[in-house]
Amino acid sequence: MTIFFRTLLLLLVAHASSVVAQTDAGKIDFGDATLRDWVQPEYPEAALKNRTEGKVVVEFVVDADGHVVQASVKKSSNEIFDNSAVSAVKKWTFSPAIDDGKPAAYAMGVIVPFSPKYWNQKPAPTTPPGSEFMPMGLPVTPAKVKSVPDPEYPEELDDRKLPGAVEIEFTVNPEGKASDPKVALATHAAFVETALRALEKGRFNPAHQGPLTKPSTMHYPMTFESMGAKREDVFAANGITILTDPAPDVIPAAIVLIEPVYPFSQLVSHEAGSAEVDFVVDEKGLVTSSTLVAASAPEFGAAMSAAVEAWIFRPALRQGTSQSVKLKVTHKFTPPENGPVARLLPDLQPNGSGIGGATGLDQRLKPLWRGFPVYPHALRTEHPPGEAKIAFIIDRFGRARAPRVVSASREEFGWAAATAISQWVFERPTKKGEPVDVKVTIPVGFKPPAE
Asked: What is the mean pLDDT of the chain?
């Protein structure tokens, strides 16, 4: 992970509500193969007669049952010993390696010594003649990128000119292709799909452990830039202006600039609106305070405030030093006339046909990216825990659409949760092989942020 992506991930986590992970205590997920039964190699008669000594390096694979396969000579001091060394190694048995909690193939190497002093010992030895002759796991050569095309800039963000970043964790399979992708970081949901499309076309050198090709996990970062867009262009395209006077030498650069959720009631009734919010971006690039200045309806103001609180910037600079800066954003909510949300609106009307749930899908819903909910600024003095229940549509392309607050312990938690969910991306849901839209409802919990 590059410095930029690591820093961005830390900022996202610092800005977000807490998440608690649990692990299974005592479970062994990974372990090397270990020798169980050893057989002494036969000493070639001609070599023994002439008291010839030697060593053979054998590489081999221990399969998931603990048996030796694919044994071959890697290096030898005298080929007279080669067949005997390989024959002996093939008779050895092992406790298999453990990978992700399951027995797995494992590549090893061993030095097989031949010396008269090891021959005809009484009683016959049952272990190698020294620790240097114990089989050891071979080093893994990690997977490498051969080629990945540059991702396309998403058409839906053309007007907003946003820069973007996506980092994907995936498995490089033995064929050198990416599989089982998971998005580790995304600055906007729109970047996820084009990043995944580019990754599908990527080709990789798979990881190797000696003769064994191994699936391996890899991280791949992708960045997006709107052609020729400067920081000032991004601000203008998103209705952001500088309030600090005098303005900084270098204005903040947008990193995460989520659009506000369109309030559900206003969305289905095709009601237009607007909101204006003043906010402060601190020396780290995080929004530390925001003030709703004006809104055509309270819902538009609440949605805009929740979006702003999730924004992240590269900080402003004055004389080369980071500084806080006060900004203003004005946003117009315009009912969509075309596009993915407009397509869903007829079914979301009170007299519409509705959208079905997840029952009967070809496979369970699989999230690829889930944006972090930000703890509301207005509640940071009280620090209450909270929860919200959000209903939303996962459309046939896997994007979360039209989030609606079903319930919330505090109104602010509802808008913060809906804002985060608006950025979620799933594998495309299908029924009988055909892509479908799915309605789901989930709870979102909030823990007070650490001081």
From this structure: 91
- The token pair at 264 is 């559900």
Query: Are 419 and 306 spatial neighbours (Cβ–Cβ below 8 Å)?
Result: yes
Beta-carbon contacts of 269 under 8 Å, excluding residues fewer than 6 positions away, are none
Q: What is d(CA 369, CA 181) in angstroms, rounded to the nearest whole number?
A: 10
DSSP character string of 188-237: -HHHHHHHHHHHHT-EEEPEEETTEEE-EEEEEEEEE--TT--HHHHHHH
Instruction: With cut-offs at 50, 70 and 90, classify the pLDDT of residue 25.
Output: very low
Structure-derived torsion over alpha carbons of residues 399, 402, 404, 410, reported in degrees to the nearest 10: 70
- Please state, in angstroms and rounded to a whole number, the distance separating the CA atoms of residues 365 and 411: 28
- Is the separation of the CB atoms in 114 and 81 below 8 Å? yes
Cα angle vertex 122, ends 117, 128, to 5°? 60
Helix (H) or strand (E) holding 326: strand 325-333
Q: Give the tokens for residue 308.
A: 């702003």
Q: What is the C-alpha to C-alpha distance for residues 348 and 269, in angstroms, rounded to an integer?
A: 10
Domains defined along the chain, listed by start? 30-138 (3.30.2420.10), 142-224 (3.30.2420.10), 231-333 (3.30.2420.10), 340-446 (3.30.2420.10)
- Amino acid, single-letter form, for residue 158: D
* Length of the chain counted residue by residue: 451
pTM (predicted TM-score): 0.82
